[in-house]
């Protein structure tokens, strides 16, 4: 069973795993029992789940009972087994927009930009601003979401949501732009 994982690039999808088993084995019964097989190797801690969109991991030893077998979730091999199983990390394609630009003069205060929500915290939202082929990190504090009291910031934002923001200033300590939501909701 471990030979099916040996040499894999992590993370990998259900389809990649299924093809790997079919190449290694002529026993179609094992392919039919793929879900059970995945649950077994999840239960013993060899693999975990990873959602690249949410940047979230799930592991049996962290009380996540069952493996998620869904297109949105990938499988990762436990880091402690990478060397033993000759597993390599999948190489990330080099792309200029993968790196943040920390130039504190690149964006101008009071300018309006389109941004995408990447993380949500109880008191702030982290967004990516793409401008002229560059990517900038910005933060919208809960007090700058709307002109009304915000009890739960999640009522206003979802990861991946497009928002319009106004640049207030650059926070050199956090290397991030301080922003104000321009899609003010006044209900």
Automatic annotation (TrEMBL):
Residue runs in coiled coils: none
GO molecular function, one term: nucleic acid binding
Residue ranges annotated for the S1 motif domain, each copy included: 110-182
Name of the protein: S1 motif domain-containing protein
Organism the protein comes from: Neobacillus piezotolerans
